[in-house]
Design a protein that fits this description.
By secondary structure, this protein is of the alpha/beta class. The chain has two domains: 168 residues, Mur-like, catalytic domain (UDP-N-acetylmuramoyl-L-alanine:D-glutamate ligase, 3-Layer(aba) Sandwich), CATH 3.40.1190.10; 159 residues, Protein-Tyrosine Phosphatase, Chain A (Alpha-Beta Complex), CATH 3.90.190.20. It is built from 13 helices and 13 strands. This is UDP-N-acetylmuramoyl-L-alanyl-D-glutamate--2,6-diaminopimelate ligase.
């Protein structure tokens, strides 16, 4: 069984999804490990051992897995031989754990450089040309497609032309630029880092341009508690710059006061001559914030629900309760915009 590892700040889930599904469509038994399929992005060594054993018994030939910085630093992937290692990108994240960006980089690049096997860096995959059809929106997803293509080409399983044809029928990735509704557009995405949020909103701006729309962008977002506090004002500033209306709400507050997290975000949302016409709204209740955004949206607008993506829970203190942005968006659409 060949193991393929995908690391990076953003794009791991989408790249893993693409590589695994293309392999399956090409007729190879393949499975994936990551944020959507497992409790942790990179499971514990004991869970990984169990998964590897199960997949081996099934006859799986390729196991594609997300490799997180926590997973590397905590030796969860130690002893695994990766036939291919690839990095999507590296930007600010997890500084609550790694303390400095340099330390975070060292963990990621250290893993990529270690051992034998094929190594694919951003400077490698960026050379790939997208001259084929695929279903994913935004430049950031084009980068994910390029990374996946580079990984797949390195395996030498199919001629490149045949390989590229398989991209046309790929399925959407849950909670990754997932379009819940059109007229107005309602888009759910997992973007929870400054780079992720900026890339998401740029993709929405591109979609608006492609649709020749003059609709507004309404962004609902928050920041996780007990995580890197330094990114909160940055995300606030980025959201305000690229949205017409920002609804600041709760993500997973965990043990922090939701109001304090929101204050940290608002600290970066200082209006200037370029943003004075934009609206900032605060609604700590995420369900209410989603409902408010849907209610405010006109048919040509774009409602962006950022931060939770595929997640089906919200964490308050030590309590985890059911919550799904996609479900809440659909309920809000039924209540506020009946057909």
């Amino acid at each position: 069984m060949k193991v393929i590892g995908i690391t990076g700040t953003n794009g791991k889930t989408t790249t893993t999804h693409i590589v695994c599904e293309v392999l399956q469509k090409a007729g190879f038994p393949a499975a994936k490990i990551g944020t959507i399929t497992n409790r942790l992005t990179t499971p514990s060594p004991w869970e990984l051992a169990e998964i590897f054993a199960q997949e081996s018994r099934k006859g799986t030939e390729y196991l594609v897995m997300e490799v997180s910085s926590h997973g590397i630093h905590q030796d969860r992937v130690r002893g695994i031989f990766f036939h291919v290692k690839a990095m999507t990108n590296i930007t600010r994240d997890h500084l609550d754990y790694h303390k400095t960006f340099r330390a975070y980089q060292k963990v990621k690049y250290g893993w990529l450089r270690r051992g034998a096997g094929i190594k694919i860096y951003p400077g490698d995959w960026c050379q790939e040309k997208i001259d084929f059809v695929h279903p994913y929106h935004g430049k950031f997803n084009e980068d994910n497609v390029r990374t996946a293509l580079a990984v797949l080409k390195s395996l030498n399983i199919l001629p490149e032309k045949k390989l590229k044809k398989l991209f046309a029928t790929l399925s959407p990735v849950p909670g990754r630029f997932e379009v819940i509704h059109k007229n107005p557009y309602v888009i759910v995405d997992y973007a929870h880092t400054p780079d992720g949020l900026e890339n998401l909103l740029r993709a929405v701006l591109d979609l608006r341009r492609d649709q020749k729309s003059v609709g507004r962008i309404l962004t609902v977002f928050g920041c996780g508690g007990d995580r890197d506090k330094g990114k909160r004002p940055t995300m606030g500033r980025l959201a305000l710059r690229q949205s017409d209306i920002c609804l600041v709400t709760s993500d997973n507050p965990r043990t922090e006061n939701p109001g304090q997290i929101i204050e940290n975000i608002l600290a970066g949302m200082k209006k200037n001559i370029l943003t004075r016409h934009k609206q900032i709204m605060v609604e700590p209740d995420r369900r209410a914030a989603i409902r408010q955004a849907v209610r405010l949206a006109r048919a040509a607008d774009f409602v962006v629900l950022a931060g939770k993506g595929h997640e089906t829970y919200q964490v308050f203190g030590s309590r985890r309760q059911h919550f799904d942005d996609r479900e809440e968006a659909r309920k809000a659409l039924q209540q506020c915009r009946p057909k």
